[in-house]
Amino acid sequence: MSLVDSIAHVMTPAEWGKPIDVDEKWIDFVDDNVKSKLPKGSVVESIVPHGASYWTRTAEISTLLPDGTPASYFLKVSQGDNGRNMTAGEYASMSALYGVMPKFVPVPIGCGSYAKDPDIHFFVCELVNMTDEVPEIQAFCKQLAQLHYKGLSPNGKYGFHVPTYKGTIPQFPYWHDTWEESFHHSMKWFVYAEERSQGVDEEMRGLCQGIFDKVIPRLLRPLETGGRTLQPRLIHGDIWAGNCSTNIETNQPVIYDGACLYAHNEMEMAAWRPVRHLIGKQYMKAYFDYFPISAPEEDQDDRNLLYYLRWDLKSSALFSGNLRYRNMAKETMRALIAKFPEGYEGWARERGEEPVQRTYSPTSYDFLKKGTDTVEDPDMAA
């Protein structure tokens, strides 16, 4: 498969309300390879549909452990090459989160492909009984801040060791030394993905160029220059009301459906900006009581708007034919470009700082062509 074909494959349009591609028959039984991931000696009692997903089939597996204790698991099933990487990315994400904050996430059990059909792929984890409400603000923000404090990148770089997915679209995973370069490449990928999904728009192209030339350097370069520093932090990567709740048994917050990266911790709050979101700015305000705003502090709101732009580009790429998110992205880009016409250099001159020049490494989308094995890093800790 060529690189162009690989990109087209992952950019299959997804629509709200479109039937799930995965046949329901794959959650009518527990495949032998799924069983092999469960605790040895487990007896499967039942499997029933559980929860909802735009992209996959989901089910609850009820079992009895060898000592007779009941135990339930959450199964997510996908298909095809993209589905294999989606389930592998989710398992890698949840394993990373569990390794740092084991009480904050369901226990990840495993991933793999069905014995009955190797084109069908799965992720399985502990099933947590959760409320239908978003978690309490203070408890949630305190736990999230702890995740970010403790979850330092094992190699000191930004990125992740496998592609992780926003819906059906992989995130750009390669390792970079600076947050500015990491975000630049991530945004470049989502811009490309959005255009493949929605079609060419010359105004959009011009606005995107302004974001790359002026806005990203202006808002992100100051984070790591002039004596200011960042550390790459483990972020869940997709926190909104649909991916967090409260564990009924412990009354503690829980997060799931991870799309992890080692990133600037403030990107975790990308989706918290719109007033329509239940996890919103009130959570952001509470979070900063536990994890201080990065310097320059006065740029925080504009950085959040830039990170939210990435969220809207991802959403536009996912829902081909629906221009709502593209139009919102355009509005955001116009506002940011108008606010920062002089870019980073103008800001540095105004502050009396010596401008720092940066160049970016070439962009490669080989992770689409070769799958998860392409981004393994020799410096990545086990």
Automatic annotation (TrEMBL):
- The residue ranges crossing the membrane are none
Catalytic activity of the protein: N(6)-D-ribulosyl-L-lysyl-[protein] + ATP = N(6)-(3-O-phospho-D-ribulosyl)-L-lysyl-[protein] + ADP + H(+)
Q: Which Pfam families match?
A: Fructosamin_kin (PF03881)
Q: What is its EC number?
A: 2.7.1.172
Molecular-function GO terms, alphabetical? protein-ribulosamine 3-kinase activity
Q: Which PANTHER family match?
A: FRUCTOSAMINE 3 KINASE-RELATED PROTEIN (PTHR12149), PROTEIN-RIBULOSAMINE 3-KINASE (PTHR12149:SF8)
Q: What is this protein called?
A: protein-ribulosamine 3-kinase
